[in-house]
Structure formats: C-alpha cells, structure tokens
Amino acid sequence: MIIGATSLMAEHCARIWVKDSPVDLTLVGRSTQKLEQVAEDLKVRSPHSNFNILQTDFIDPIAIRALIDKFFEIGTVDIVLIAHGSLPDQNACQDNLVDCHRELLVNGVSPVLFAEACAFHMQQSDYGRLVVIGSVAGDRGRKSNYIYGAAKGLVTRYVQGLQHRLADTNVKVTLVKPGPTDTPMTAHLKSKNQKLASVQDVAKLIVDAVDRGESTVYAPRKWGLIMMIIRHLPTIVFNKMNI
C-alpha cells in the first residue's frame, strides 16, 4: 500500500516495485482522478500487476482507522509506504493560523495516524515493513521552515518511538529523511536555482533501504552528514546563519 500515492516520490517508488515482478498494489490518495492516472501509468509498466485505488480523508482519524482496518482484513501486507505531505510557505503559516494548523496536520499528525493504524495490525501479525517519509527539516528548527520542520520533527520522534516499541518483533519500520528533491512540491526552490536531488535517485534509495531493513535513511545520503553538522552547531553560531 502507498498512502499519498499521487506524490511524485511515491510514484517513482511504485515504478521500481513493479519493474521486476507483478505485485498487488493499493494506491491511497485524496483525488480519485489522480489516483487513476497513476494506476494507468503503472499498469502499462506492469500489465500483470494488480492495482487498486482508495480515496479517503487524510485528516479524519475515524476515516483513517476504517480504511486501514478494512485494508488489513484482505490478507497479509508486505509493505506500507506513507508518503504524503506538502511544503508550506513559512510566512503564510506565521501570519495565518488556519494555514499553520492545516500544515501541521497534513505533514505531522496525518502520517502519524496512518502509521499508528498500520502498526496495530502489523504487530498483531508480527510481519510487515512500514516506511514513513519525514524530512531533513525535522532535525533542527530553522527560521526558513520551522512550521514544516516542527511537523516533520513530530514524525521523527514518533517513528523513533515506534521502532523502539517494535524492536523485538519482525515488523521493520524505516524513516526516510529526504533533502530538497526535484518534485512539484519544490518547484519554487528550483526557480531560485537551488540544487535539488533527482526524484528517481531518491526513490531508489528508499526502495533499497526498505529491502535492507534500514531504520533511518537520508536521501541523498550526504544529508546525514550535513544535518549532523547542523544539529551540533552551537546556538551562538547557528543564530547568525540565514537558513
């Protein structure tokens, strides 16, 4: 299952998964039309795979629980990828609490609710791989994107706790922390000549990390070193940086 299947990063992960052998893949999103477009593209790439689409509300905890419960009733689930999110305008979130509230829900609370619903079933069956896409922005709050970073910081702490909870089980949980990646979500960064990672390369890193059962993967991997430095910068130095 891919939750947030219309995101470009998720779509490229799906293309890798269907490349070598047929799969049963359920695509979850908010727009049935967009989900159908993704499913049609994947069907061309893998005619013998089985694709299902599910439309749901990404904020309502009752709807999330009902969808996940129904999905796990079907049978054994190998992988769940939680990939949805948005990149908000920091200034807009500062000025408008409605925007701020929405972005915290979409980028932080919603992925956690989906993951918690999935973890319940995976722990019961003692099987499965749960993959949650966070962000390098969650490693340290910065003035340029601290609302988004706060939401992704929530995801990071949640996944760490979930990994601790499931450490003695056969359920593997992977947290993915992408750096800026060339997707529609970051189009405004590209227009500012900021260097962005290829979405194809990031998707491959995600799939490879899931195969190896890694707990945390930075994508590209250089961001692990970059964020380690940023996390450990003294406050007096960090506060002088325009980042």
UniProtKB/TrEMBL annotation:
An example GO CC term for this entry is: membrane
Signal peptide (residue range): none
Q: Does the keyword Protease apply?
A: no
Record key words, sorted: Oxidoreductase
- Where along the sequence do coiled-coil regions lie? none
> Which InterPro entries does this UniProt record tie to the protein?
NAD(P)-bd_dom_sf (IPR036291), SDR_fam (IPR002347)
What superkingdom heads the lineage? Bacteria
One GO MF annotation is: oxidoreductase activity
- What is stated as this protein's family in its record? Belongs to the short-chain dehydrogenases/reductases (SDR) family.
Q: Which PANTHER family match?
A: DEHYDROGENASE/REDUCTASE SDR FAMILY MEMBER 7B, SHORT CHAIN DEHYDROGENASE FAMILY PROTEIN
Q: Which protein, by its recorded name, is this?
A: Short-chain dehydrogenase
- Organism of derivation: Methylotenera oryzisoli
Upper classification of the source organism reads:
Bacteria, Pseudomonadati, Pseudomonadota, Betaproteobacteria, Nitrosomonadales
